[in-house]
Design a protein that fits this description.
One of its GO terms (molecular function) is oxidoreductase activity. This is Laccase-2-like. InterPro entries: Cu-oxidase-like_N, Cu-oxidase_fam, Cupredoxin. The protein is mainly β and about 280 residues long. The protein has one domain (about 45-275): Cupredoxins -  blue copper proteins (Immunoglobulin-like, Sandwich), CATH 2.60.40. It contains 3 helices and 11 strands. The chain has a 5-stranded mixed beta sheet. Strands 4-9-8-6 form a 4-stranded mixed beta sheet, with no helix packed on it.
Length: about 280
């Protein structure tokens, strides 16, 4: 009976403190009135989404607040991201004028998602594919505020490979470690980067990760603690390769349970490297 009471208390506390609606207010306003520390507190620790694009490989781009850095012993940081999840499309207006062959006038413009040059509906985080690159040091605290703006869809984010010791409710498994994050809601993930390694994060709701909700998660350690340090000279933020299989269906949900007369099987149409590819 005592165990049951504790479990019920955890569920009630979880539902009332962790999930809150953002339907009637702006994202920043909602965080300001949430039971958590306000976004203004974490804004000092806000990280860029694009540390893997090559610009941050140069020392002149390194700031004191940047969590993507050369790691030192006993020098932890708080690292904060805002994730906005939306329904989107490849070859969108940000890409400029596009042809049916997938050739666009501004393919590298902000918010342009090219994919493999085939137009289809997708799901994105911060209008990027792949999503924001999280690169931190062992011992850092990762904080992610997720705003679900996908119409009619729930979601969660799973941090693939992390054991979530002491923070199992941050593991992102719907109906197991947390309630699904409904449309219009905001959820705060907060956990310790306690194990160095190459990981990735992705949606754990349906097949959303196959439609674009995916990104890399790199936890570095001091070079003196890295048993492989003698095998490389540079470990730049851009030295990350994320390979994903890619379907041309409107959504990947159409691949389950599968079709019999066309598009039979589960083989992808192409593969993407860091969210980009080429389709004949």
């Amino acid at each position: 009976m005592e165990l049951l009471q504790v479990a019920l208390f955890m569920i009630i506390s979880y539902r009332t403190q962790v999930v809150y609606s953002a339907r009637d207010r702006g994202f920043d306003d909602f965080l300001r009135y949430s039971p958590f520390p306000s976004s203004s507190f974490y804004s000092h620790f806000l990280q860029p989404d694009d540390v893997d694009n090559g610009r941050y490989d140069q020392p002149n781009f390194v700031s004191t607040n940047l969590c993507t850095r050369s790691c030192e012993v006993n020098s932890p940081k708080t690292c904060y991201w805002k994730f906005t999840l939306e329904a989107y499309s490849t070859l969108n207006k940000a890409c400029g004028n596009c042809t049916s062959k997938g050739v666009c006038t501004t393919p590298n413009a902000p918010q342009c998602v090219m994919g493999d040059g085939y137009e289809r509906s997708i799901l994105v985080v911060n209008r990027r594919m792949a999503g924001p690159s999280i690169q931190v040091c062992k011992g850092d605290t990762i904080v992610v505020d997720l705003h679900n703006k996908m119409p009619g869809r729930s979601t969660t984010i799973h941090w693939h490979g992390l054991t979530q010791r002491l923070t199992p409710h941050m593991d992102g498994v719907p109906m197991v470690t947390q309630c699904p994050i409904l449309e219009g809601n905001v959820f705060r993930y907060k956990f310790l980067a306690d194990a160095a390694g190459t990981y990735f994060w992705h949606s754990h709701d349906g097949f959303q990760k196959m439609d674009g909700i995916i990104g890399n998660l790199i936890i570095r350690q001091p070079r003196t603690s890295d048993p492989n340090s003698r095998y490389y000279e540079y470990d730049n933020p851009s030295h990350v390769v994320l390979v994903t299989d890619w379907y041309h269906n409107t959504t990947s949900d159409e691949r389950w349970p599968g079709l019999r007369l066309h598009d039979v099987g589960q083989l992808p149409d192409t593969f993407l490297i860091n969210g980009k590819g080429s389709y004949p």
